[in-house]
Amino acid sequence: MNNALVKFQQELTNIPPPGGNGCHSKLLGIANLGVIAGLDAQTIHDRLREHIPPGKRRISDTEINDAIKRALNDLRGKTAPIIKKSEPKFNAPRVMEKIITQANLDEVDIWDNSPIRMDWEPKEDTARFLELMFNPDDLLFIGQREDKAILGKHIRTQKEWIEISKSGQTIGPLICINPLSGSPGPTKNGEGMTYRGDNCINSFRHCLIEFDNKTMGEQINFWGSDVISILPVKTLIDSGGKSIHAWIDIQKLTTVNNPDDWDRNIKIRFYDAILKPLGVDAACSNQSRLSRLPGYLRDTGKFQKLLWVSDVGKGVMR
Question: What are the residue boundaries of the structural domains of the chain, listed by start?
Fold first, then answer.
């Protein structure tokens, strides 16, 4: 990674709160670093928006874009040509087409190949999944997308959620892919605080892969291929007939200890460089992403269910 990109990532964490001194000039300085590093304007904008802390006022998208435009104008002719996002070294669409058309698989083929044999009813998936994927004291958000993350209600320990599930109560349909800290953090847009945002993650263990432009059959062929032996997949979840959610063990990919590590090693190097060219849903690239919770019966009459589970770290999958 070039020095400008490293500095760009570092300076994102040093943005002063809006409404005080230094915020505007800091945005311009970081935009300059992004331009020098060869990042495109949209990427620079998105990184700035994600890292601007809450303050006395809200920085608008127009202000961010103005800083980027000024950086582009100031540096034009003084630096090497701006490098656009590089094309993948392989033909991603062709590779994807080859993978998804080389076989005619169904869910049973993936289920049969699961290292952990799932010889229980789909309604039992919830408790089994939580036991396999998390530790007893992990704080987990489970609920609807619009639910406020309230401690003791939608945020409980893995042990508590398992007890609730085994009591016969329905929980779900969504779960945050990583354990939470239990402390509030600023929302993505900087307007208020939340308990389940990207700044509230306690342990960075999983990232999510989901396709929004592939049929269910194509996704089954993809995950039934040799890809599953290349990527460190922890589990595959059938969302209820529409898509497959793949949880990836990021600790086998790289080291992530904080949000900046995530941006640098997961969002840029993994999603932007590898997954997006293959057609993976770009919206899945954040650390507090919600995924479908197995064992939940949808109003269509179909269960969100486990398809495949790794046996690595069986019992306590870190």
Answer: 3-75, 92-309
